[in-house]
Amino acid sequence: MKTLLVATDFSENANQAADYACKFAGQLGSNVQLIHASSIDTDSPLQVIWPIEDQDTIIGRNDALLETFSAKLQNSVATSSGPDGYIPSIRVRSAAGEVGDLIRETVQLEDIAMVILGLSGNGDLKRLIQGSCSRDSIDFAEYPLLLIPQNAKFVPVKKIAFATDLSISDMEIIQLLALLAARLNAELLIVHVIGDREDTQLTHHINEFMKELKSRVNYNQMYYENVYQSKLEDGLNWLADHGGTNIIAVVHRKHSSTSNILHNSHAQKMARHTNLPLIVIPEGYKGMLF
Fold first, then answer.
1. Do residues 209 and 243 make contact, with C-beta atoms less than 8 angstroms apart?
2. What is the mean pLDDT of residues 6-35?
3. SS3 state at 131
4. Looking at the domain assignment, is residue 287 inside a domain?
5. Are 143 and 287 in contact (CB under 8 A)?
6. CATH code of the domain covering residue 187
7. Considering only CA atoms, which of 144, 122, 146, 125 is closest in space to residue 134?
8. The model's pTM
C-alpha cells in the first residue's frame, strides 16, 4: 500500500496541511508517514544549550509531540468520515538535520506516493515548512508533491484538473493521474490554457494530442477543455472558481525557460489566489502514485 509522506514543523500551516493529508489518505485508503526534522546551525549559540550529545533527547521529545499530534489527526479523520470511513494508520519519525534530507531519505526507503507540504500564507516556496525547505530542494524534487495552501479545507476529491501545454510527453503523467482519479472515483479534466498569442496550428495540435490521448489513456471520466486566459495561472485560478475542481495538477519541467511551473512562480501566484491544493509532478517521473 502506498503511503503519503507529510512533513511538519508544528506550525499552524504545516499542521493544517497534515490534517488535509490524513483526510485525503482516508479517501484513498492509504496510510501516512508523519515526519519532523530538527536542524541546529553549527554556528548557532543554541549549540551551547543543546549540545550534540543531547540530540537523542531532542528527537525523543519530538517523537512524543508527533505521537500526540498523530492521535489528534486520527480523531479528526474519524469525526469527519463517520463510522464506516477508513482511518489511516499514522507512523511518526523525527530526526536531526534538514527536512529536505529527511524527505529524500524517507522517499528512498519507503513506498511513498507523494510528499505533502503546507504553503505559507504568502505562497512563498521558501517557507513551505517554516524556514526549513528551500526553493531549490523543491525545484529539483524527483517525487510528486502535493502543496496545500493556507486554510485549505479538505472536501472529498471529485474532480482533478491537469494543465497541459499539449506536449505528448504529458501522456505518462495523465496515465498516472487517471489511476489516481479512478481510485477516488473522480473526474479528470485535461485543460489547455489558450493565451493571447495566436497559433495557426493550434487546432492541429489539439487534434493530434486528443488522438494520442484516446489511444493511450482509457478512463471514462476524463474530459478535455480549452480555457481562454492570458496567463496559465489565471486560467487555473478560473478553474478553481468556476470549474468545480478540487485539486489542480501540473508538470514541473526542470529545464524549460517557458513552461517551468515552479521556477516561473506560477505555483506561488496560485497559492496566493486560490485555496485549491496543487499536485506538482516532475517531468519524466516513472513511479506510481497508487
1. no
2. 94
3. coil
4. no
5. yes
6. 3.40.50.620
7. 125
8. 0.85
